[in-house]
Backbone:
C-alpha cells in the first residue's frame, strides 16, 4: 500500500527533517569546518618549517661566497680552513664516489633478493623475510656504524692484509647493508604489482621460470627499480653517523679503497661544533649542508618524474 | 579516557618542570640543574665529581657530555650549558681559537698527557725529534725508531680538541701535524682516540693519563715517564690546566659544584686517584 504523499504528509516529513538538522547536525557541520581548517593549518606549519630550514641554511651558506669564489669552493680540492683554503671538491667527489660504490654493491643483491622473495620463495620464507627486511630498515644508523667499527674494519684489515681498514670500501659496505632492505622492499612491491596475466601468458608460451623472470618481470618493473635505486641513493647520500665512524675523516681524495677520506656529511659533523658562528668556515659548512639539500631535492624530483611517466606508460 | 590521559600527562609534565626549576641562592637544600659540555679529557673527572656532588646535594641535577674542548665555551656562549670544560683558558686568545668574551675561567685540574701506542708495539721510549717526525709524516716505519718493521698508523684528534692544542705545543714544540696520507686518521673525542689506538695495530696517538688503561701503552718522552711526580718536578713538559668556563661569575649550584671540584678534599683525594694533578701542586703558571 503506497503511502499518500499529499501536502500535509509532505510538510510533516520536511519538518521532521528540519528537526533532525538542528542541534547534532550543526555540530557536525562545525566539526567538518574545524577539521578542514585544522588540516590547512597543519599543512601550513609543515610548509613554513621546511621552507624556513631551506632559507636558514641557504642564507648562511650563501655568505661563504662573499669570501670564497664559486670556482674555489666547488672545483678546488684543498680543504684547509686554517690556511683560508675552502675547496670542497674533495668532499663532493667523496660523496659521489661513495654513493656510486654503494649502489654498485647494493643494487644487484637487492634485485636478486627481491626476485627471490617475490617469485621463487615458498610462502613461509616470504612471511619471515618481509618483516625481517622491514625491521632492518628501522635499525638506527649508529648501530650499523658501531658494527662497522668493531667487526667490519678488523675483518677488512685481516683479509686485505692492510694497515687500516677505514676508507671508502668500509663505508660503502656499511651503507649497502643499510639501504639493502629499503631497495629490496621497494622492488618487491613492484614485482607484486606485475599483473598475473603477464606471467601466465609467458608460461603458456612455454617459458621456464628463469625466462619469465628475466624476460617478462624485470623489464616490466624497470621503473620500479629506478625509483627504488633513487630512494636508496637519497638515504645513502644523507647518511652521517655510520659513515663518520668508518671512513677515517681525513680531507683527502681516496686514491684507493682503503684510504681514509671524507664526505660532505662526515665533514660537517666533525667540524660544525668546533667552528665559531659567523666565520667563513662556518658558512662553508652550511653551504655543504645546502648542497646536500639540493641533491636530495633533485633526486626526489627525479623519482616523481619517473613515477608519473611510469603511470601513463602502463 | 583521552581526557584523563591528557590530564595525567599535563600533571606529570608540570611536576617534572617544577622539579628541574633553577633555584639560585638557597644553601640549605641546594637545588639546580647544571649542564656541562666540552672537553673529553676532563670528562671522567667531571662525571666522578658529579657523582660525589650528587650524594652531598641530591637536589642538584648534573648532566655532563663531551666531544672536544671547543664545544665547551661555545655551549656556554649560546646558553646551552652552564659550565664549559676546556683544556685551555678560553677567555684568552689561543693559537687557532679566538677568545670568548665575557666568560670566566676556573682552574680545576692539571691534566697530564701521554703519547700512546698499540699494546703490541715494542717501542718504550721516543724522543721529541722522533715524535715530531712521526706526527708530521716524515718517519713512517716503526723500524726507524727502534721497533718492528711495520708502517706507523698516526691517529690524530680533530680540530677543536684541547688535547691536540696542548700536545702540539708541549710535546711537538709547535711542529705541524700531517694532514693527509694513507696511514693517517682523525677522531673526534678522547674516547674515540682510545678505541682507535686500542684496535689498530701499529698505531700511535696521544691522550690524557686518565684514559690509559689495558689495551694501550704509554711511552716515555726523552726517557721520562708520564706521571704526576715528573710533571710536578718539571721534568715532563706535556701537561695543561683544565678549566671550567662560565658565563660571568657563577652562582648557586654551579658555583657550589666548581668550589667542590677545587676543594682540597676532592683535589687531594679523587682527583689524584684518577691520575690528574691537583692545581696546588703546580707552582709555575704556564
Residues:
Amino acid at each position: 500500500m503506497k503511502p499518500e504523499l499529499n501536502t500535509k504528509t509532505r510538510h510533516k516529513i520536511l519538518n521532521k527533517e528540519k528537526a533532525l538538522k538542528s542541534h547534532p547536525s550543526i555540530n557536525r557541520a562545525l566539526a567538518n569546518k574545524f577539521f578542514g581548517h585544522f588540516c590547512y593549518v597543519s599543512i601550513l606549519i609543515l610548509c613554513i618549517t621546511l621552507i624556513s630550514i631551506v632559507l636558514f641554511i641557504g642564507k648562511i651558506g650563501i655568505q661563504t661566497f662573499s669570501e670564497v669564489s664559486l670556482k674555489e669552493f666547488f672545483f678546488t680540492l684543498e680543504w684547509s680552513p686554517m690556511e683560508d683554503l675552502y675547496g670542497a671538491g674533495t668532499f663532493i667527489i667523496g660523496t659521489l664516489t661513495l654513493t656510486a660504490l654503494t649502489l654498485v654493491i647494493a643494487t644487484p643483491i637487492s634485485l636478486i633478493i627481491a626476485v627471490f622473495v617475490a617469485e621463487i620463495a615458498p610462502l613461509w620464507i616470504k612471511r619471515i623475510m618481509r618483516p625481517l627486511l622491514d625491521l632492518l630498515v628501522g635499525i638506527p644508523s649508529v648501530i650499523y656504524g658501531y658494527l662497522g667499527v668493531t667487526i667490519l674494519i678488523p675483518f677488512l684489515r685481516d683479509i686485505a692484509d692492510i694497515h687500516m681498514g677505514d676508507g671508502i670500501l668500509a663505508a660503502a659496505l656499511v651503507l649497502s647493508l643499510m639501504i639493502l632492505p629499503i631497495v629490496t622492499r621497494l622492488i618487491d612491491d613492484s614485482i607484486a604489482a606485475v599483473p598475473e596475466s603477464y606471467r601466465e601468458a609467458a608460461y603458456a608460451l612455454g617459458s621456464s621460470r628463469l625466462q619469465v623472470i628475466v624476460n617478462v618481470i624485470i623489464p616490466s618493473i624497470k621503473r620500479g627499480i629506478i625509483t627504488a635505486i633513487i630512494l636508496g641513493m637519497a638515504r645513502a647520500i644523507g647518511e652521517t653517523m655510520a659513515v663518520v665512524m668508518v671512513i677515517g675523516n681525513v680531507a683527502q681524495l681516496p686514491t684507493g679503497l682503503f684510504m681514509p677520506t671524507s664526505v660532505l656529511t662526515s665533514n660537517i659533523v666533525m667540524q660544525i661544533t668546533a667552528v665559531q658562528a659567523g666565520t667563513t668556515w662556518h658558512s662553508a659548512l652550511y653551504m655543504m649542508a645546502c648542497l646536500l639539500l639540493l641533491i636530495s631535492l633533485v633526486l626526489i624530483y627525479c623519482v616523481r618524474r619517473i613515477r608519473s611517466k611510469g603511470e601513463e606508460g602502463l | 579516557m583521552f581526557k584523563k590521559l591528557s590530564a595525567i600527562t599535563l600533571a606529570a609534565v608540570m611536576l617534572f618542570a617544577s622539579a628541574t626549576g633553577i633555584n639560585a641562592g638557597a644553601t640549605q637544600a641546594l637545588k639546580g640543574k647544571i649542564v656541562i659540555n666540552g672537553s673529553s679529557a676532563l670528562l671522567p673527572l667531571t662525571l666522578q665529581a658529579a657523582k660525589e656532588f650528587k650524594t652531598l646535594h641530591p637536589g642538584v641535577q648534573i648532566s655532563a657530555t663531551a666531544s672536544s674542548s671547543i664545544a665547551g665555551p661555545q655551549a656556554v656562549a649560546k646558553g646551552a650549558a652552564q659550565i664549559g670544560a676546556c683544556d685551555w683558558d678560553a677567555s684568552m686568545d689561543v693559537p687557532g681559537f679566538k677568545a670568548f668574551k665575557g666568560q670566566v675561567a676556573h682552574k680545576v685540574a692539571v691534566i697530564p698527557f701521554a703519547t700512546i701506542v698499540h699494546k703490541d708495539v715494542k717501542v718504550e721510549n721516543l724522543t721529541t725529534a722522533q715524535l715530531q717526525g712521526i706526527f708530521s709524516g716524515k718517519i713512517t716505519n716503526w723500524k726507524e725508531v727502534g721497533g718492528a718493521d711495520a708502517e706507523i698508523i698516526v691517529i690524530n684528534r680533530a680540530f677543536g680538541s684541547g688535547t691536540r692544542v696542548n700536545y702540539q705545543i708541549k710535546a711537538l714544540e709547535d711542529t705541524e701535524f700531517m694532514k693527509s696520507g694513507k696511514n693517517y686518521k682523525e677522531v673526534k673525542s678522547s674516547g674515540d682516540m682510545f678505541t682507535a689506538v686500542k684496535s689498530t695495530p701499529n698505531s700511535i696517538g696521544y691522550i690524557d693519563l686518565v684514559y690509559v688503561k689495558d689495551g694501550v701503552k704509554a711511552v716515555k718522552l726523552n726517557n721520562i715517564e708520564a706521571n704526576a711526580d715528573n710533571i710536578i718536578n718539571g721534568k715532563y713538559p706535556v701537561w695543561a690546566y683544565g678549566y671550567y668556563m662560565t658565563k660571568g661569575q657563577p652562582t648557586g649550584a654551579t658555583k657550589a659544584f666548581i668550589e667542590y671540584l677545587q676543594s682540597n678534599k676532592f683535589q687531594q683525594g679523587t682527583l689524584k686517584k684518577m691520575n690528574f694533578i691537583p692545581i696546588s701542586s703546580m707552582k709555575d703558571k704556564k
The longest helix of chain B spans residues 2-19. Chain B is about 35% helix and 20% strand.
